[in-house]
Amino acid sequence: MSNLSRRAFIAGTLGTVTGAAVAAQPAAGKARPATAVETAAAQESVNVHWLGGGAHAETLGVTWGVPWPAGKLPPDQAFTLRTEGGEAIPIQTWPIGYWPDGSLKWSAHAVGGGLPSAETYVLATGAPTATVKNTVSVRSGKAFVEVDTGVIRCRVGTRGGSLIQSITRADGREIVRRGQLICLAQDSIPEGEESSVRRKRFTGDIDSVTVEQSGPVRAVVRVDGKHRGKNGRAWLPFTVRLYFYAGAESVRLVHTFVFDGKPERDFICGLGVRFHVPMRDELYDRHVRLAGEGGGMLADAVKGISGLRRNPGDAVKTAQVAGQPTPPVATWDTRVSSRLHLIPSWGDYSLSQLSADGFHIRKRTKAGHGWIDVGAGGRADGFGYVGGITGGLAFGMRDFWERHPSQLDIRHADSDEAEATIWLWSPEARPMDLRFYHDGMGQDTYAEQLEGLEITYEDYEPGWDTPVGIARTTELAIWALDATPSTEHLAELAKVARTPPLLMAPPAHLHAAGVFGDWSPVDRSTPARTVIEDRLDLLLGFYQKQIDQHRWYGFWNYGDVMHGYDFFRHQWRYDVGGYAWDNSELSPDLWLWYSFLRTGRADVYRMAEAMTRHTGEVDVYHLGRFKDLGTRHGVQHWGDSAKQARISTAAYRRFFYFLTADERTGDLLHNQVYTDRTFLTIDPSRKVRTGPYEPDPHALSLGLGNDWGAMASAWLTEWERGGDPIAKTKLLNSMRSIGALPYGHFTSGALYDLDTGEYHAAAPTVGISHLWAVFGKAEICSELIQLVDMPAFKQAWLQYCRLYNATGAEQQAELGRSLGSLDLRQAHSRLTAYAAAQLDDERLAQRAWAEFKTGAAGYPDTMDWNTWRIEPPHALNPVEELTWVSTNATAQYGLAAIQTLALVGDHLS
């Protein structure tokens, strides 16, 4: 991302484009921020708590974001962190978002290892008072970047195949060497019962290394490259970010790869990260740990001395099982010590999670010999350890069983150097098969494809079903430990790897800061409000259960939900064209994020986070002809031919970015700034366009609905972040020109200028789609009107909000014609509510609640809000049903309820 200096940013944000200025006064019914940056920082503080509660003594280091009201804090505001008892904690702070007046909107904060254990901490303005005991320092060598946390030193390679060249502890002991990215691939998947397939091995090869942060509490190193084979082929671009925190003995890795192979011949059969671990201790003082389910832990020694025919002594066995140094061999029973060479040494271990419901552990002495079954279970935590009494490596993968097929391997633990591999895709599973699921069925013309759409709701087109350009991001963690920890300690580390602790401001503070538009914390102060709150809780709980009951898991699937339900089969329509995976259709992402903002619930946050990680990577193209566009809902996430900005929109990712300062999500947000360029080569209306169309950069067919809504969310977010100034220019120019169109947001035929961001219409007519406002445009317009004083744009949007659900006569009076029978009327009740709040109009407020309760194309008040349980044999597994459920309706019901309560909740009866 282009980083502007603070002075340049403020100068840029305080400037105006014709007809635009920073909003100066609150509008009726809406809280508005102040405008001027205060000369002295206001004393602000907030109690931040651990998401989900409790106190976390074990962390990887923590980074989180906090919003602040407009005009309150300067952009370079300093902060302190302390326990409620007053103990000062070292903290690193940087701005990640600004209000249009230049004041601080979002601050990011990082704390390192050794954090005092507490349930809440006080974050306040002011110069930091705590001294960083172990600072993070970064230095660059000729072929490496070295990061020192005060506890460990990690050398990151700047060329070649070693992502991590070494990790040593402060006393010089080397714990890790040669951390590498590994890919295994084959060129076919055998269909018969007999076959012979050869695998090829590729290793991550570094192209560039960038130090993105250098301390004193947090350092971030970004490594980019491709996987390269012995034949010289380079493919599968990767980005790995390494996170280091002061005083920590751990490294967090965020691993992203993009698929750029040929789906019909490039079948990934193993994808992972491998570390080499020096083994210095005696075989009986070397240990292997693998986490099972629910805190279970396999605790083995490479050469076990417990359970033998002869007893070496209870003190010896107790020490070995605990991972502690065994007493000198001379003190053992000689019947054991004299026969140590006859006890097998177990050098290899594997834990494979090939489904969401089962893992299997096995071990062997060495290659060429048989595997021995160790145990099995349901859902492994995805954590392991290999090492000895003088040090070892702990390693873990987040969402291990949810993203099956995954695997942990330990090899050669009986040699001088062990290998530990975290497999994101298990080599024991079937190869990754990204081929399209049908042969086209003769749909070679647009007419045939539109016919297919009529029956399966799938918009198929040859060549548009490609996975080339999709991505996946996975979070990993490693610890360079000075000795084998207790199994209790390792179980705590496993929890941290599985669900990294996160600090969060409470809903009241998030709301008071005035961020993310129209929402309010949960309020059950009246019976009518309580009914709606209970239904919102019911829907959240229902979808959480559906994820598990229908096993919406897997490497490419986890984080998404299904679109439509088949009540006859008691099954979601996973195999019916456009009714299968939802791919953000009608904004479930927004529903989850607004649900979290107002509740503060950890389970809702984790669900929203998983969806953001999925939809921003898997459902969006990151290279190739469709770069920066997303794919409409379908049987496969990438299979539908509708490639649209409404799926890749920044509106769905910005919550996660601002709450966590996640750099990968920041990349995705920045990339969306330039999505408008894609419309030079992709015509979304190609199948239904009636006349000739040649893309003109000064007259692009980029619609005022979902297209502009997606672009506006990207431009606003980039402007907030202080990035490319073109974002602000295009945002304000587009708003001004939309406000000047004769029918405002109802204008059909408006064309877009790629250079300026302006719209113009040579022959404007009235046109509308029921989908225009339900992919984030309603939310973004609310924020824009809050931030920018542009009366014409505001009036155009209020007109849209008033008239969408208005009577035909009212529409005729203002637009010259009735809009006919429009769909999604319950979803649009929140637009009526917005107009009511802005105009302080009692009649519109009552109309909004009537529209919401009637529930047209949604969930009316009169329906049965009880779930039904379906048992086998009528379903594959026991499942709960809502007989009327639809993800479209659920997401829009949730958003309409949340926003209408916030806007005109005092009119609810």
TrEMBL record:
UniProt superkingdom: Bacteria
PROSITE patterns with a match to the protein in the record: TAT
Any coiled-coil regions, as ranges: none
Domain named PcRGLX/YetA-like central beta-sandwich: residues: 136-494
Keywords, sorted A to Z: Signal
Sequence ranges assigned to domain PcRGLX/YetA-like C-terminal alpha/alpha toroid in this UniProt record: 500-908
Stretch forming the signal peptide: 1-23
Keyword Cytoplasm: no
Domain PcRGLX/YetA-like N-terminal RIFT barrel: from-to ranges: 45-124
Name used for this protein in its record: Tat pathway signal sequence domain protein
Organism of provenance: Phytohabitans aurantiacus
Lineage: Bacteria, Bacillati, Actinomycetota, Actinomycetes, Micromonosporales
